[in-house]
């Protein structure tokens, strides 16, 4: 018989950790404001040891009352509500407000590295909520009730495909902001790009993933070689383009990225014309093997056979990007 014993440890819920910290503070004879306790809970991520460590550092300050101002001497500047508001602005394509929030956070003495990780962690939690089941429960275990509700609400406002693209673009900013002289610039550019996703994706309320599945099921029984009979049009393809992008991610991440910055511009019979911003992207998609993969994905999503045709779309896409940058940062074009 084995003499080994196994102990499985799990993260504490935010409510349990919050009460434990309040009890410890009471025993030490100090008053810690609830805002500070909530901040410690968020930083600890369900770890009792980390939470008690943060509280211990605050106690060593020697103050009888720990306010947010006092706590800022020890704890990194954190505001989960701001991070959730930021994600909300991205979902609604309110790019200017998202960029303003980044800058106000810095002006208030915030840690941009912590803000980046905070947004990343929240986006990941939203993805787990979209996946459902036990993953959804685990996603919000370390959040206070009011933040849990807002996280679930934000998750319901967009499709899983669009959330994945947002997450990938935010992840890509990690390698650039560390080497930038203006730390906030890579995050601002990421916000502009994520906001521009609404040009090719429709933000739907309720369970949009279920709606997408229903549309796919309806199309699947249509004749594969008769686009006219299907009633499929360019607007429908544009609204569901991110589903194609997400489907191709399983085949190749770089191809998925190329199509995420491209856009359907014309549907003539069975031929779908897609505009590409860069000649390099267009050349890549002209490869017969790539064309076959994309056409198979289109058939899978729309339940009908389409032929892919690529063409340069530099003028239009460049104008859209320039417009986004000017709207966000201000300025004008001087000829």
What would you note in describing this structure?
- The protein has helices at 14-27, 34-44, 48-59, 68-71, 80-91, 95-107, 112-131, 134-139, 145-155, 160-172, 174-177, 184-196, 208-219, 227-230, 234-239, 241-249, 253-260, 279-285, 288-302, 314-329; strands at 31-32, 65-66, 263-268, 271-276, 307-312.
- The protein has 335 residues and is mainly alpha-helical.
- The chain folds into 3 domains: 14-71, Helicase, Ruva Protein, domain 3 (Orthogonal Bundle), CATH 1.10.8; 80-196, Zinc Finger, Delta Prime, domain 3 (Up-down Bundle), CATH 1.20.272.10; 208-318, 2-Layer Sandwich (GMP Synthetase, Chain A, domain 3), CATH 3.30.300.
- Helix 10 packs antiparallel against helix 12.
- The longest helix is centred in the middle third of the chain and has 20 residues, at 112-131.
- The chain is elongated and about 75 Å long.
- The model is unreliable at 199-225 and 315-319 (pLDDT under 50).
Protein topology:
Layout: H1 14-27, E1 31-32, H2 34-44, H3 48-59, E2 65-66, H4 68-71, H5 80-91, H6 95-107, H7 112-131, H8 134-139, H9 145-155, H10 160-172, H11 174-177, H12 184-196, H13 208-219, H14 227-230, H15 234-239, H16 241-249, H17 253-260, E3 263-268, E4 271-276, H18 279-285, H19 288-302, E5 307-312, H20 314-329
Parallel strand pairs: 1-2, 4-5
Antiparallel strand pairs: 3-4
Helix pairs in contact: 1-2, 1-3, 2-3, 5-6, 5-7, 5-9, 6-12, 6-20, 7-9, 7-10, 10-12, 10-16, 12-20, 16-17, 16-19
């Amino acid at each position: 018989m084995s003499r080994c014993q196994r102990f499985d440890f799990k993260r504490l819920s935010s409510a349990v950790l919050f009460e434990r910290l309040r009890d410890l503070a009471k025993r030490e004879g100090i008053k810690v404001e609830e805002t500070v306790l909530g901040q410690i809970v968020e930083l600890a991520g369900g770890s009792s040891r980390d939470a008690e460590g943060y509280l211990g550092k605050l106690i060593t300050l020697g103050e009888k009352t720990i306010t947010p101002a006092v706590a800022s001497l020890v704890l990194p500047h954190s505001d989960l509500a701001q991070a959730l508001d930021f994600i909300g602005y991205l979902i609604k394509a309110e790019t200017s407000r998202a960029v303003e929030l980044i800058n106000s956070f810095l002006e208030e003495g915030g840690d941009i590295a912590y803000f980046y990780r905070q947004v990343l962690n929240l986006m990941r939690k939203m993805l787990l909520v979209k996946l459902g089941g036990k993953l959804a429960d685990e996603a919000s275990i370390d959040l206070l009730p009011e933040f849990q509700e807002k996280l679930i609400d934000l998750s319901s406002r967009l499709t899983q495909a669009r959330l994945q693209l947002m997450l990938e673009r935010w992840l890509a900013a990690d390698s650039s902001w560390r080497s930038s002289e203006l730390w906030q610039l890579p995050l601002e550019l990421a916000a502009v790009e994520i906001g521009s996703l609404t040009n090719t994706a429709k933000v739907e309320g309720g369970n949009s993933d279920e709606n997408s599945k229903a549309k796919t099921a309806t199309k699947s029984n249509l004749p594969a070689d008769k686009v006219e009979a299907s009633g499929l049009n360019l607007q429908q393809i544009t609204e569901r383009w991110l589903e194609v992008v997400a489907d191709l991610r399983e085949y190749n991440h770089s191809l998925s990225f190329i199509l995420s910055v491209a856009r359907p511009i014309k549907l003539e019979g069975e031929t779908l014309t897609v505009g590409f911003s860069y000649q390099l992207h267009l050349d890549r998609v002209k490869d017969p093997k790539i064309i076959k993969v994309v056409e198979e994905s289109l058939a899978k999503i729309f339940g009908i056979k389409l032929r892919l045709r690529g063409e340069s779309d530099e003028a239009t896409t460049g104008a859209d990007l320039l417009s986004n940058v000017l709207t966000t940062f201000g300025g004008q074009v001087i000829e």
